[in-house]
Hints:
Blueprint (H helix, E strand, L loop, with lengths): L2 H19 L12 H26 L5 H25 L6 H23 L8 H19 L6 E3 L2 E3 L1 H51 L2
Antiparallel strand pairs: 1-2
Helix pairs in contact: 1-2, 1-3, 2-3, 2-5, 3-4, 3-5, 4-6, 5-6
Amino acid sequence: MNLPNSITMSRIAMIPLLLWILSPHYPWQGQNGEQELAAAVLFVLASITDGVDGYLARKRGQITTMGMLLDPIADKVMVTAALIALVAYNPQVVKVWIAVVIIAREFLVSGLRSIASTEGFTIEASDLGKLKTVLQIIFVVSAILAHRWYQWELGVVIIPVKWIAVTAIYFTVGVSVISAIDYFVGFWKKIDHASNDRRKSFILSRRKSASAP
């Protein structure tokens, strides 16, 4: 197994660890927020590996079928696991419908990409999709921290942890919906173009067959 695939596997291994930390069975639930900080740091590390494995695979020429299969699976499972855990861990901030919308968007885009692959074309990640990923990281980390802190007071600097979490959540939902529509429109245009090409190819082949002696 090459290095990029090993990093992807490490991200998959972090998922049950994250769920354990966010569970009531985590043994170090101190008043100083040890549980929240551990979960937030772990999710940030997992998010970093999401970019590192792809970068290394391209730079080292180690793009493999296994990597192309595991990377999106690891991403989707990590996001789904974090959202479901947060619905139970911090229901004051993360509502059920929010998790449903974001998870549904992930499955929709994955489905469109699978269909596009069978039709012989790809759907590239859009800028909206990349923005959604960044907002999602901010949302998950701040929602975890908001379980313990309403705000951080660092001298004269006040960081409104819960306000950041709520704001990031609704921005994430909005961008998720808009980017899903953007992906669907792009998919529809390409699938319609592919259908027209097949229709033209079929008509030309019929004409050639009819004109053949």
